[in-house]
């Protein structure tokens, strides 16, 4: 999970943690699709003078995945055409067709889909406890301005989440929202004081069973006026923080029944204090949401001076994977009847019965990197070539030679959820599309 807000560099951390094997080990060939993966040393050597994966990726992506992209989609009455989002010649654009093809699908608006079932159950909780006070939005356009996504929620100018490595830019001023907090300011300005915003959000990220570049969040926001806290013996901030925790603990019980949970202090630019809620589930603590008391500046700038507010942002896939026992985040996008037929409106917590677990096909890929290399760019290239066949991309070796050149070896796990993959077809796909 890449936190929007923390700036930890997972790749660097992992690289540091790895023992550096001798070059011979890093590049030794082997061959089998079974437990010991073959080493496929593709002709992808990014020497310092060679193009970085970002540049290479953009081209690969745009030719390989366009078949799935529709001509135009409608989101809340806004028509979004491919050329509005994917601009091949524009260096300020980094949106591939694989991402465009997800815009407008709005899984959270399907009542028979696990994400729709979960959204409706959260709505039920707020309707029951706040009798219609919360306005609900689930159809706001995911194309937002840099101002909405970052400036309006006080994300610092140099924050890592603004980088082209982490965010999909349509142009220098427009992004695919990377969190539903992008809508806080406009809704406040429109006069809303209690609202829930559900939507698809987009982040360039690593690849594994819990990360997908498109996922879904629900934002909650509640404004208090001085009358609300004046008799409480608390100041506005303490009052809002207590109400926030009570509200979210109630929501967690509504979803999970009696569960162990804990609050963890954290940091977000738009809230202070800030917390994460973790739930103990299947022998581990799981972060399910971020939240906090809204920074005064946001309220002041949007017409609510002298008020306080709380806000939260929860990850729907995170919760749904736990509630429905869904083992791989790619499954949410499946149209396979064997997946879709297992879920129906109003039925939260029906346990998913895996219909297949086809064998993975592993390929290892070694290449020299330069200072421009990033893991997110590599993942984008791989996703552009293999689409949803790629299950995981994992750094397994990191080696620096005497001249200071560094090579990385990544293990790519390919696995179809519908059939067995052959070694040959994956070899062909890699060679065809990378040459
Ligand atoms: C945010 O996005 C903040 N906007 C949340 C927030 C809103 C905080 C309002 C305070 C006030 P973060 O990046 O941690 O924070 O993401 C929030 C939740 O989204 C996470 O707890 C997790 O459940 C989910 N999430 C984040 N990244 C992913 C991902 N790559 N895949 C699936 N779920 C994710
Ligand atoms: Mg987080």
Task: Explain how this protein is built.
This protein is of the alpha+beta class and about 425 residues long. The chain has helices at about 10-15, 25, 55-65, 80-85, 95-100, 115-130, 145-150, 185-190, 225-230, 235-255, 295-300, 315-325, 335-340, 375-385, 425-435, and strands at about 70-75, 80, 135, 145, 170, 175, 195-200, 215-225, 260-270, 270-280, 285-295, 310-315, 360-370, 390-400, 405-415. It has a seven-stranded mixed β-sheet with strand order 3-7-8-12-11-10-9. Strands 4-6-5 form a three-stranded antiparallel β-sheet. The chain is globular. The relative contact order is 0.17. Magnesium ion (MG) binds near residues 3, 276, 287 and 290. It is found in: Mitochondrion matrix. Its EC number is 6.1.1.20. Is responsible for the charging of tRNA(Phe) with phenylalanine in mitochondrial translation.
Please sum up the structure shown.
By secondary structure, the chain is α+β, with helices and mostly antiparallel strands. It has 15 helices and 15 strands. This is phenylalanine--tRNA ligase.
**Oligomeric form:** single chain
Poorly predicted regions are 1-69
Q: Cα-atom Rg, whole angstroms?
A: 23 Å
**C-alpha geometry:** globular
Across the major sheet, the strand order is 3-7-8-12-11-10-9
Could you give the count of β-strands?
A: 15
Q: Work out the helicity level.
A: 25-40%
Q: What structural category do the secondary elements indicate?
A: alpha+beta
